[in-house]
Design brief:
Length: 96
């Protein structure tokens, strides 16, 4: 397969995986229920959505690693505290 066809195939796969991931996440958000209420999706369906998301994310990571664009960044949630690192020398410069 020529390099151009390979790139087109990868671009299509990346777009498809992204669309699938966004759709599955939207379904999860749209069907989220308050604690104590019965979820509209069966436990089996919820597990299938999770399995599909894991497969999609694994393939996206594979593609990124093959292309050399993979980062090990993880999502940061707004309710999590983040820790920033800094050097002592920079801190000393700021204080002086």
């Amino acid at each position: 397969m020529s390099n151009n066809n390979s790139n087109n195939s990868n671009d299509y796969e990346i777009r498809m995986l992204s669309a699938m991931r966004k759709t599955l996440i939207a379904i999860a958000k749209d069907t989220m229920t308050k604690p104590g209420l019965r979820h509209p999706l069966t436990q089996n369906t919820q597990e299938m959505i999770t399995d599909c998301l894991n497969i999609v994310i694994s393939r996206q990571t594979e593609i990124e690693k093959e292309a050399g664009t993979h980062t090990k960044m993880k999502p940061v949630y707004t309710d999590e505290q983040t820790v920033q690192s800094f050097s002592i020398d920079d801190l000393k410069k700021t204080l002086n």
